Automatic annotation (TrEMBL):
Disordered as annotated region, ranges: 320-344
Subcellular location: Cell membrane
Gene source species: Leucobacter allii
Name the record gives this protein: Amino acid ABC transporter permease
Domain ABC transmembrane type-1: 76-283
Family to which the UniProt record says this protein belongs: Belongs to the binding-protein-dependent transport system permease family.
Membrane topology designation: Multi-pass membrane protein
Coiled-coil parts of chain: none
Main location: membrane
UniProt entry keywords in alphabetical sequence: Amino-acid transport, Cell membrane, Membrane, Transmembrane, Transmembrane helix, Transport
Stretches with biased composition (Basic and acidic residues): 335-344
Record-linked SUPFAM superfamilies: MetI-like
Amino acid sequence: MSAPHSAGAGPEAPHREPPPEQIEAIRLRHPWRTVFAVVLAIIAALFIYDTAVNRPVYNWAEVGKYLFDVRILSGAGYALQLTVYSMVIAIVLGVAVAVMRQSPNPVVKAVAWLYLWLFRGTPVYVQLTFWGLIPTIYKSIELGIPFTEAVVSLNTRDLLSYFTLAVIGLALNEAAYMAEIVRAGLLSVDKGQDEAATALGLGWWHTMTRVILPQAMRVIIPPTGNEVISMLKTTSLVTAVPFTLDLYGRARDISAVTYQPVPMLIVASIWYLLVTSILMVGQYFLEKHFAKGVARRPDVMKPTVATEAIGVVTAEEAAQHPTYPSRGGESIVPPHERPGGGGA
């Protein structure tokens, strides 16, 4: 039998469970991962040492000699021009073909499908070779009324240079892939967005530029960046036109004189790697810009006071601690004697 409380003593303090002990998480060890990483590091070190010391065919002195050669720098500039011009034309034409693919007109849709079938189904090298033969196939371009004497006759060789033919060949091939990329981006936007814009009274142009495209760009940008990088490397195929002033063409011309193709291939590869690295950085920031607000979760609201089980208090407990009325009219006392809780 417990002893009675002495006169004037306060009510017995409520029983509290001791705080749980902190869990000490032990990290799971993966010894084979460490072994595999060490083996890879050793192989990489041996390869670098062998390349730098035991392979005179690389001729690193020759690489350094021609790395900033004027002809190589000029070739890199032509490669960038081919990439920019071809991608601009390909993006514009790809958007048009993507819209044609979604047209309700069966003829327009069939023309777009035929374009994609032709340019995606044949190798780009074959297409570039064909474009190089255009001046031979079509010796002149004549303008006038059909079945009558031509009003204007233009020599194809004078009108279309090999550089122009290379841009046309690259752009038309790339437009087929850009059309599918743009179409996938447009289809990724929920149909309700279009319906909501129409309900708000927005026209087609404002719906596309302010509602659909900003959301579709999140899907369009990553593969488009990959296509730009791929286009830069594809410019090495314009020798099929033939256009030989690009980066690879200039490196090949120099190696034909020095009889050392390997160092010149390394020089061209270094410049391709440099430019593609810059393009990858730009692609990263573009993706980050158009991904704003996507998959973002709101910050978790942290309680301002320590939480624990609460209950209805008696009149004696209410006299010792501040209370708050509940919906049922009963008094609730918050946690106390803990960080963030009420005072004792």
